[in-house]
Structure formats: C-alpha cells, structure tokens
Amino acid sequence: MTAYDAQTALDAIHHRREQTFDAYVRHAQSRPYLIISALGLFAVCSSFDLPSPWNTAAILAGNGLTLGGLFVHQRRAPVRRKAAGSEALFYVALGVLLLALFWTVAIAAHFLGLPARHTLAAAVTALAAVVASYALRPVFGTILRRNGHG
Prior knowledge:
Elements: H1 3-28, H2 31-46, H3 52-75, H4 85-112, H5 117-135, H6 137-147
C-alpha cells in the first residue's frame, strides 16, 4: 500500500464519518418527531387547566403521544449510537430551561390575570421547544463532533 492509498482510505473513512454525523443529526431533529413531541408537551403542560377527569386523560394522551413518537423515532433511526455524557447534559439543560420557561410564563399570566394560564404557558413552551430545536441544531452537531462518536 502506498502513502496515497492510505491517505485515500483515511479520507474515505472521514467522509463516511461525516455522513454518519449528518444522518444522526438530521434524524434526531426530524420534523415529524419534533411536531409530535411539541404536541405531547403541550397536552401534558396544558392539563393543569382542565378539570379532574380530563386532566388525567390529557396527561395520558400527551405522554402516550410523546413515548409512542419516541419509540417510532428510535426504531426508524438510520444510525444507532449511545448518547455521550455531554449530549445527555445538553438535553437535560434544555429540558430545565423549557421547564423554567413554562413556569415563568404561567406565573406571569397569573399576575396579569389571564385565563387558562397553563395552556398559554404550554403553547409558549411548545413553540420555544420547536424554535430551540432548529436554532440549536448546529450546537448539537458540534457536541456530537467534539465527542467523536458516530
């Protein structure tokens, strides 16, 4: 094997690795799963405004939608890999920020005297989750590449 052949093989490996990263990021941020997650998040968070039998139904429907979407999303993944610690930390931080946004909007709506404050907060939070997914896609890709997984 010549040095040129070795470099060509190494370049092919790097190219395939980049394709794997791109496929993983594209699938992780896919639009259908994002919409299903946002709808599940909205259903669960807005359930606080519903009376007793309906809030349980909304929680079950929202969690069923989210977990069912997650199951289908994982089954259809073209690339399977274990999440790295920094990737999990990224998801936890994003979840904490969305939770803080939900309660901030709900409390602000309460002080403003708005009706259905949890439903308003749920809509804002679900919309923020969708916007954050698109805005943080490059950050997510950077975290993946920094960990060197793919």
